[in-house]
Amino acid sequence: MSNSDRSTNPRTVICIGDIHGYIPKLQKLWTNLETLIDPSHFNTALVIFLGDYCDRGPDTRQVIDFLISLPKKYPEQKHVYLSGNHDLAFSAFVGVLPKPSDGSEFKEGWKEYEHNEEREGWFNGDGYESMYLQGRRWAGDIKDKFNAAKGFDYKGSIYDAAPTFHSYGVPHGSADLVKAVPDDHKKFLANMVWIHEEDDVSIETEDGIKHCKLIAVHAGLEKGKNVEEQLKRLKAKDTGVSKVEALSGRKNVWDIPQELTAKPTIIVSGHHGKLHIDGLRLIIDEGGGLPNNPVAAIILPSKKIVRDTDNVVKEL
Predict the structure, then answer these.
(1) Which residues are catalytic?
(2) Model's pTM, two decimal places?
(3) Over the stretch 179-191, which tens digit does the pLDDT of each residue have?
(4) 2 SS3 class
């Protein structure tokens, strides 16, 4: 599509929130999107998955199969698979994360959080000695099963990872998961990006269509820290830190950093367990991995929200 075509008919961008192992929700949402969006726009859309494909729901393996199948089924679409904090931890456990660029060992990153080790019951099985912290927490066995913040029991670990293990046919916390995860799934996990940028995305505003830069990142960008430096570290997938705030932070990544407000920049994320549309800050995670909540997507430029629970009828 040429630039002149883009301005009159901007590319459709679809951002899909956290799926958390629910294949029926993902399939229904995809069908709804395909039904609602004009085929010529849908088939050439940029589709950004905002991360957290695993944990909580029972179908992680099927979700990843579905995601892997899309480029062949929709060859003209562009697919972006962001890593969420859950996917990062899954990747850590199966050993596909890059090593820290400073040459340090992953275990050096345990020290900062070791006061939580007993409570969170970190993984101590085969391979733990060379594992990134979040992999150990992910496969851990939390001592106090009740999650007071959410009002129900944890599923195995602080990450609710037991259903992911079960979807690959192994018990929670078993080192056998490394062998049980197929190579194409490991490749998918290894290739996930921590951040994605687009230079020209159209969005409807009160002042008409705006052309903006778009940054997609699972939780958001940290306030008070240099944006260029953050982008550089995220693009490099820098595992020298034990907790990647842009993938797992909360209040500190909620707003658009001040320095990005000079040039209009959309920041789109999942992660936060809610739907929040405020100007150019888009947070699309209505599901939060809870069984009775919908999985949502936003379509740009219109900002239309689509859910798996919508009863979409194809217009004749």
Answers:
(1) 86
(2) 0.96
(3) 999 999 999 999 9
(4) coil
